[in-house]
Write a structure and sequence with these properties.
The protein has 11 helices and 15 strands. The chain is an alpha/beta fold. Strand 13, helix 5 and strand 14 form a beta-alpha-beta unit. Helix 5 runs parallel beside helix 7 and helix 8 packs antiparallel against helix 11.
């Protein structure tokens, strides 16, 4: 017997802020969740699995129109024609109280109730699936504690949307312990909510398949579902099915030894070539480039950042032929202990250094920028400048500004 366990599909996720970044393939990224889901259905049909389990967050939230539901119904129709039933549990993003729109789904789709645990039995395979959908977005009770005892003589699967206890990177919804799941008497736990792939060792496999498609830079690397092969008594194997259609990646390059911008761009080109060599042809990459290290080019890089970004994008375009796009260029370069300055600018450099180190001046700037910080749009939320402002740390911002001023004056004579 084989089944697919998927979770956190987030169909038609709005992906806020994409339009802010130049050169991003917005339409491709926005359609990635659908394309990945279609690939998952393709895999299910090709592998002729016995059933599919979706452990929460099929949808990213309430639909803006019925197109999302119609798309899902179409894909479920493909599985129905292939004789594959699907068991859907709703999580925090598509909880009962969140979804105001609904459509009639094909008869092969079975949804776990939200008011109590539900058990679906597949007599043909002696399988019992136990689960409970979220009644509302925020569920802080231990839902697993109310799941029924295992059905004797059956392969019991627990379907649960949870962060497990102690997972600080995700909201603590439906908390439970790994020990509790291992002691349940079930043969497999199909979890959702945590977006990273994780298989917990123990007497019973407890598995997060991760989300189906990375949606931003914090979701890097392969994404997909899992294929579970089992007999009447135990799991025999768990294999990843990588169905994502594009990937996010961060490339960090140390430019400490670069003597000029030409050398920096040569270093960037080499790094991009390495990324492309590792990349599969059917999975284009959205890349964040971070330049770091200690360099006398600090002021020049800050002062010419728009030109630098354009050069990086042009290099990508020439090398990647549409297989790579730049999400952001970040400069985390530190100036040397004493930034180089021409003789005529030594006095200005000293004054700027004194200003950067003046705590009273820092406080004045912070107060002046408070309104800008509070009104910053979503797409700027994780920019280093706004992160620094939220933490009331402005010295690095002032240091970059001072370096840019000195570079501008030096270049203009």
């Amino acid at each position: 017997m084989r089944f697919i366990h998927a979770a956190d599909i987030h169909l038609d996720s709005p992906l806020k802020g994409l339009g802010f970044y130049e050169d991003m393939p917005v339409d491709i990224v926005r359609g990635a969740s659908r394309a990945a889901f279609a690939r998952l259905v393709d895999e299910a049909l090709e592998l002729e699995v016995d059933f599919m389990v979706i452990a929460g967050d099929l949808y990213d939230g309430d639909w803006k129109d019925h197109n999302t539901g119609i798309y899902f119904a179409r894909q479920m129709g493909r599985l129905r024609n292939g004789g594959i039933p699907v068991y859907v549990l709703h999580g925090n993003h598509d909880a009962q109280s969140v979804m105001t729109s609904r459509l009639v789904l094909p008869e092969n789709v079975h949804v776990f109730k939200a008011n109590r645990p539900t058990t679906f039995v597949l007599e043909k395979h002696n399988v019992a699936l136990h689960g409970r959908s979220f009644p509302q977005a925020s569920v802080t009770e231990n839902m697993a504690a109310g799941y029924p005892a295992p059905l004797p003589g059956h392969f019991n699967i627990g379907v649960l949307h949870t962060a497990l206890e102690g997972n600080s990177q995700h909201a603590n919804y439906a908390p439970c312990s790994l020990q509790q799941l291992h002691a349940s008497g079930y043969q497999y736990w199909a979890l959702g909510h945590v977006h990273e792939y994780q298989v917990y060792p123990g007497p019973v496999p407890v598995v997060f398949p991760g989300n189906l498609q990375g949606r931003h830079i914090r979701e890097q690397g392969p994404r997909g579902a899992v294929l579970v092969t089992c007999d009447d008594h135990a799991v025999q194997s768990i294999e990843r099915l990588e169905v994502d259609v594009l990937r996010w990646r961060e490339l960090r390059l140390d430019i400490s030894y670069c003597e000029d911008l030409k050398a920096v761009l040569a270093n960037v080109r080499s790094g991009l070539e390495d990324v492309l060599a590792e990349q599969t042809a059917d999975k284009p990459c959205v890349l964040r480039l971070v330049l770091e290290g200690e360099s006398g080019l600090h002021g020049e890089l800050v002062g010419q950042q728009p030109q630098l970004r354009a050069d990086v994008v042009a290099t990508m375009a020439a090398l990647a032929d549409g297989r790579m796009w730049l999400e952001k260029l970040r400069l985390q370069v530190r100036p040397p202990h004493r930034a180089p300055a021409t003789v005529e600018h030594d006095e200005l450099a000293r004054l700027l250094a004194d200003a950067v180190a003046d705590s009273g001046f820092q406080d004045e700037i912070l107060q002046g920028l408070q309104g800008l910080r509070d009104r910053a749009p979503y797409e700027l939320a994780d920019e280093p400048v706004f992160e620094a402002l939220r933490q009331n740390e402005i010295q690095d911002i002032l240091q970059d500004a001072a370096a840019a001023v000195l570079d501008r004056l030096a270049r203009e004579g």
